[in-house]
Design brief:
Largest sheet of chain A: none
Order of helices and strands of chain B: EEEHEHEHHHEHEHEEHEEEHEH
Strand content of chain B: 25-35%
CATH topology of the largest domain in chain B: Rossmann fold
Number of domains of chain A: 1
Number of domains of chain B: 2
Shape of chain B: elongated
Structural class of chain B: alpha/beta
Number of helices of chain B: 10
Distance between the termini of chain B: 38 Å
Helix content of chain B: 25-40%
Radius of gyration of chain B: 23 Å
Oligomer: heterodimer
Shape of chain A: globular
Radius of gyration of chain A: 19 Å
Order of helices and strands of chain A: HHHHHHHHHHHHHH
CATH architecture of the largest domain in chain B: 3-Layer(aba) Sandwich
Largest interface: A-B, 24 and 26 residues
Largest sheet of chain B: 6 strands, mixed
Helix content of chain A: over 70%
Chain lengths: 300, 307
């Protein structure tokens, strides 16, 4: 099977196989999110069983956001070690290489998501599953978007050291200013104003609304459209800036191009500040943290 | 049987900042020919071959491989060429057979993984990770991967660099076999013996220019380099008569040996035997060392290839 689709699929399978043999991948993609789940799950079990859907949404967001870290590091490693240049003398193009990164990452993230749901349901007695269609679509689009952001990081950095520094800055921002660890309403007012411009905030908020309020896909349209827009721009720019050779440096304009990937969230952030209801939804959803029992138990 | 031009390179130039890597390189390679680019490190060989592979863009000049432009022909070009790059690697945790399967899957026509494993002596290592292979095994895998699409033209960039002599000989055998299959091969090397043993024709490259081009035999004949005759005799010569023998241009003494540099070897040897009889002396040993490509390079540049 050759041709662009065939090449993409062959690369996808190969990269999934390689990832499964990589201990660092297993640690960051499976063990770390599960550690968060167990931490949150234990808090929920002890103090507020009804809070599990809200907390699971945070864990799902962390799992999805982790995509950008792994992909950027892998791509830069491949470039630095001269692995990419070996592919360059084959019919494989940059698009197939990048698409295989996204697809393999998606297929590798899904099992973790399923395990997190399973453990939440049966170990931490989460009685509400939320709107599963909305969750599935958010997980799918979110995973592709954050992986695409990883590809952008790989395309604008020249060394592994630079990649790691940028990753840590972005990861730190996503982790603490998006609501993934500290609930949005608990953030200082100034940080809330920053948070409305971050893709991670909409992923967390979308997942919490889908899990806690069972929000429909159509009601999450603006969030999803921004995530899709960001993914498309990030993918196209990554393909344009793709470098096969270790010694080829990113052009000066690369970082400017890369910055355009966040345009959908700048627009959404402005709209949110004027007309938005993100804060209102966040205030409502956080109430579930105080629920001593699940709604279904009370109804029963 | 040679049937046409497979590779055409014309007036190629390439500059990296202040460094002129290629300064008007031109050559052609016939179909089925093994062509060598011979030169010291930094001569511009890899730049030339990487332009041919489509990895680099020339500043000026043109290249054509099987009638295709590597820069613009896209996948169509990748189907007819195979390459073993000098600086490359595979993921550490990729198994040998997986690498051949993966790279084979990119082409509409491919050689079977099992066939390649057998041919390149990698059967026992089929399940080994890339990181577990020795340097020689990695190079054999690189060659197998270069042939996975059964290409018409194969580029081998320093295929034996850094390998021990025994592994180098194994690689030579593989290239000899490819030669029998009438593959067009362009190889770069800084090993003289490699170029002499494997190549039908050689271009000697120095400072980004082709300074000599021809078959190894032609280059030696064209060169003013002389054959060295190393003679050891029962009794030492003291009168300097050896330097006056027919064809001898220079005579040096090194320990017990006399080094005679000759332009007419058969006549020099006849004269030497006659001289020994007259002097009632005896020949203990005699060695004839023909000029090598190394001598030609030295003669043309004043430097050794590995300087």
């Amino acid at each position: 099977m050759s041709g662009i689709l065939g090449n993409t699929w062959s690369l996808t399978l190969s990269r999934m196989r390689l990832a499964m043999r990589n201990r660092a991948f297993l640690f960051f993609s499976l063990i770390t999110p599960l550690a968060f789940l167990f931490g949150y799950g234990e808090l929920s079990r002890r103090f507020a069983p009804g809070s599990m859907p809200y907390l699971l949404a945070m864990v799902l967001a962390l799992t999805i956001m982790g995509s950008f870290w792994g992909l950027s590091v892998q791509l830069v490693t491949f470039r630095e070690q001269g692995i990419l240049r070996r592919f360059r003398v084959t019919p494989v193009g940059a698009s197939a290489m990048l698409a295989s990164s996204l697809i393999s990452n998606y297929f590798l993230t899904l099992p973790t998501i399923i395990i997190e749901f399973y453990l939440s349901r049966y170990l931490f007695h989460m009685s509400r599953l939320g709107n599963l269609l909305s969750v599935f679509i958010l997980v799918t689009i979110g995973t592709v978007t954050f992986a695409s952001l990883g590809l952008i990081v790989a395309s604008v950095t020249n060394t592994m050291q630079e990649t790691q520094i940028i990753n840590q800055i972005i990861w730190f921002i996503f982790l603490f200013i998006s609501g993934a660890t500290i609930p949005f309403p608990k953030l200082p007012a100034m940080l809330q104003k920053v948070a409305v411009f971050l893709p991670a905030t909409y992923l967390v908020s979308g997942l919490q609304r889908a899990m806690v309020d069972r929000t429909n896909v159509t009601d999450l349209g603006a969030y999803l459209a921004s995530l899709v827009g960001c993914a498309v721009i990030a993918f196209v720019i990554s393909a344009q800036l793709f470098r096969w050779e270790p010694e080829t440096k990113a052009p000066r304009r690369a970082k400017l191009w890369a910055a355009t990937a966040v345009i959908p969230f700048l627009l959404l952030g402005v709209w949110e500040m004027v007309n938005g209801d993100l804060r209102a939804h966040a205030m409502k959803d956080i109430q579930s943290l105080q629920e001593p029992y699940s709604i279904e138990r009370i109804e029963r | 049987m040679l049937s046409g031009t497979a590779i055409e390179v014309s007036n190629l130039t390439k500059r990296y900042g202040d460094v002129e890597a290629l300064r008007g390189v031109s050559f052609t390679v016939q179909e089925g020919e093994v062509f060598g680019l011979l030169g010291p490190n930094g001569a511009g060989k890899t730049s030339a071959v990487e332009i041919l592979e489509g990895l680099r863009t020339p500043d000026s000049g043109s290249v054509s491989v099987c009638g295709l432009d590597p820069q613009t022909a896209g996948a169509k070009y990748k189907y007819v060429m195979g390459a073993a790059l000098q600086a490359t690697a595979l993921p550490d945790k990729m198994r040998v057979h997986e690498a051949l399967d993966l790279f084979g899957s990119f082409y509409p026509q491919r050689r079977g993984t099992q066939e390649l494993l057998q041919r390149f002596g990698l059967e026992e290592k089929r399940n080994a990770f890339y990181s577990q292979l020795s340097g020689g095994q990695k190079q054999r895998l690189a060659l197998a991967m270069a042939l996975v699409n059964n290409p018409r033209v194969v580029f081998l960039d320093e295929p034996t660099a850094g390998l021990d002599p025994q592994v180098r000989r194994e690689i030579y055998d593989i290239i000899e076999e490819l030669k029998k299959e009438k593959k067009t091969i362009l190889l770069t090397t800084h090993y003289i013996e490699e170029a002499e043993k494997l190549c039908d024709r050689v271009a000697i490259v120095d400072h980004g220019k082709v300074i000599a081009l021809g078959t190894p035999r032609e280059l030696k004949q064209r060169s003013g380099a002389v054959t060295r005759i190393i003679v050891r005799m029962a009794k030492p010569e003291t009168n300097g008569a050896l330097g006056n023998l027919e064809g001898v241009t220079e005579c040096r003494v090194e320990a017990d040996d006399y080094l005679l540099y000759s332009t007419r070897v058969p006549r020099t040897i006849v004269a030497l035997v006659k001289h020994l009889e007259e002097q009632n002396n005896e020949l203990v040993s005699l060695e004839i060392s023909a000029p090598s490509l190394e001598d030609i390079f030295l003669e043309m540049t004043g430097r050794r290839l590995r300087d």
